[in-house]
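Data availability (excerpt). The following record was deposited with the supplementary files.
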Amino acid sequence: MDRAIWWARRDLRLEDNQALAAACSRAGAVVPLFVLDPAILESDRVGEKRVAFLFGGLRSLDHSLRQRGSRLILRRGDPAVEVARLVREVGAGAVFAERDHSPFARERDGRVAEAAPLQLVGGPTVRPPEDVLKSDKTPYQVYGAYARAWRALPWDSAPALLPSSLGVPPKLDSLPVPESPRQSEESYLEATEAAAGRQLRSFTAGDEAPIYRYAEERDRLDRDAASGLSPYLRFGLISAGRVVAAAFEAMDAAPEETAEQSADGWLGELIWREFFEHLLYGFPHAQDGPFRREYAGIAWRHDPEGLAAWQEGRTGYPVVDAAMRQLAHTGRMPNRARMVAASFLVKDLLIDWREGERWFLQHLVDGDPALNNGNWQWVAGTGADAAPYFRVFNPVEQGRRHDPAGDYVRRWVPEVAAVPARYVHAPWTMPEAEQRRCRCRIGHDYPAPMVDHREARERTLAAYAAGRAPAEGRTYGAQ
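Predicted structure:
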């Protein structure tokens, strides 16, 4: 065909992009398109930090395209209308796009396919959902079994070739990339393909690479042990295949057995990402309700004041407050902090996990519907392969274990900056004289705990037991 359209969505890169490579291999000229969809940008599940990162990625993509004699065509509106309009304008024989697995994306792509010659190629995961199924061709619902099946499958690690030329684009109307909302220095991330590559190399390359300490340090809140790749994977500034290949390469190059096991542990986290993507694809009902339907009857508390205190980081538990303030300020949060903060909302305050899921999506730079949903339901005990509902994180013990000197909480909760380490995760236990000396008077300088953890735990266990329907003979994800 003479012309094709590459419709970029969450794959804002040129390297290892199967949809772009397919378009370039089948057309003389390729027109790159991105559609600003009001249904996404104006959603109550989208916040300014993720939008800022998206706009940065679009500017970077346009720059890279212009270096190759092309440019990004930016339109705003309903994708079904805008994609079809551009097809008519350029006389395109096909529209190539990377497959997306979310219920929203599948409904959108169905409407676009009715209006334009859409071809979906590749996807945000290494393996498509239909490649990792049980023997009866149904999706896995337990991570361990899924991971074994995922690892047993061969895969082609060769990246899709970077096109040398996309052809000269015709003269077309295009919107400028909107200016990003202003970001603080701590929240700013360079949203470029080059930055994603540097981040991957800094985490995985060399005998002293952080990937070889990942197993030991991953849960430490006072150390920056994460790969930092999640925002780049979220918007496809780097491909899942390239990241997984780097994990295997690090395992092969590990200087010792413990280092290899650590790298393998990080690969396991990448497989968790694929598991949650595939899970929402196979069981879309989990987007709006519990994956395990027997938990639909839990009597959640309606507590706007408690929800606001959690959102604003003033629960009286320093590790929870630090996590929530870091989220609000930077749009990022370590995985352990996410679990502790989520557990507090659901298990200590008995507030519906969907309230927290929405709040995280509003603020996380790497907010992804499938991963966010999967993680929240794991903590709540309502999801596939979930922790038992009676597993409740103790915020004091979690802080002591994963932030032993209190460095993490002191950074984000300045009210406890002068509190000694033995009290920093439970400052209300300080004698009054010590509180005055540290300028951390409970109930004055810093809130008293909004709930007693032991009492809250018992309340939650009772609510789950009362609201849990019998599950005998039931498949958790059955429609």
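Summary of structural features: Residues 193-282 form a domain with the Serine Threonine Protein Phosphatase 5, Tetratricopeptide repeat fold (CATH 1.25.40.80).
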